[in-house]
């Protein structure tokens, strides 16, 4: 729900240097449970989710989902 509110807010037109602009955000989310290996791994996961969001189209949000290869 929060992600959709962020997308809605970013979809509002804004003025920059006297011209109207629009955005179409792609958001990737990685949940931190306190057990993540490190900050770099968390950012990598959010980045993966963001690229999945971009692939799904404009104004989308995707959560990181571990794959079989992530399992030890």
Describe the protein's architecture and organization.
With 72 residues, this protein is α+β, with helices and mostly antiparallel strands. It has a domain at 24-66. 39% of the residues lie in helices and 19% in strands. It contains two helices and four strands, in the order H-E-E-E-H-E. The strands form two sheets. A two-stranded antiparallel sheet has the order 1-2. The longest helix is centred in the middle third of the chain and has 18 residues, at 39-56. The mean pLDDT is 86.
Give me a quick take on this structure:
By secondary structure, the protein is of the alpha+beta class. It contains 2 helices and 4 strands, in the order H-E-E-E-H-E.
Question: Mean pLDDT, nearest integer?
Answer: 86
Major beta sheet summary: 2 strands, antiparallel
Share of residues in strands: 15-25%
Q: Based on helices, strands and strand pairing, what is the structural class? A: alpha+beta
Form type: elongated
- Oligomer classification: single chain
- The amount of helix comes to 25-40%
**Total of helices:** 2
Order of strands, main sheet, comes to 1-2
The low-pLDDT segments are: none
Q: Count every beta strand, where a strand is a DSSP E run of 2 or more residues.
A: 4
- SSE order, one letter for each helix or strand: HEEEHE
CA gyration radius, whole angstroms: 15 Å
Q: Terminal Cα separation, in Å?
A: 32 Å
């Amino acid at each position: 729900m929060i992600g959709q509110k962020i997308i809605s807010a970013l979809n509002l037109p804004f003025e920059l240097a006297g011209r109207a602009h629009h955005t179409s955000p792609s958001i990737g989310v990685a949940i931190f449970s306190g057990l993540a290996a490190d900050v770099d791994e968390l950012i990598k996961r959010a980045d993966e989710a963001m690229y999945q969001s971009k692939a799904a189209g404009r104004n989308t949000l995707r959560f990181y989902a571990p794959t079989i290869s992530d399992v030890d």
